Amino acid sequence: MIAENQPEVSEKGSFLEVLAVSGRLGLTSFGGPIAHLGYFREEYVNRRKWIDAQSYGDLVGLCQFLPGPASSQVGIAIGISRAGLWGGLAAWLGFTLPSAIILILFAYGTSFFGSSTSDSGWLHGLKVVAVAVVAQAVWSMARNFCPDRPRATLAIVAAIITLAWPLGFVQILIIVGAGIIGWQFLPVTIPENQARLHFGVSRRLAIGCLIVFFLLLVALPVLRSLTQSQPVAVVDSFYRSGALVFGGGHVVLPLLQAEVVPPGWVTNEQFISGYGAAQAVPGPLFTFSAFLGTASKIPPNGWVGGLLALVSIFLPAFLLIIGALPFWDTFRKRQDFQAALRGVNAAVVGILLAALYQPVWTSAVNGPKDFILVIADFGLLVLGKWPPWVVVVFSAVAAAVLGFFG
Question: What 3-state class would DSSP assign to 6?
Answer without folding.
Answer: coil
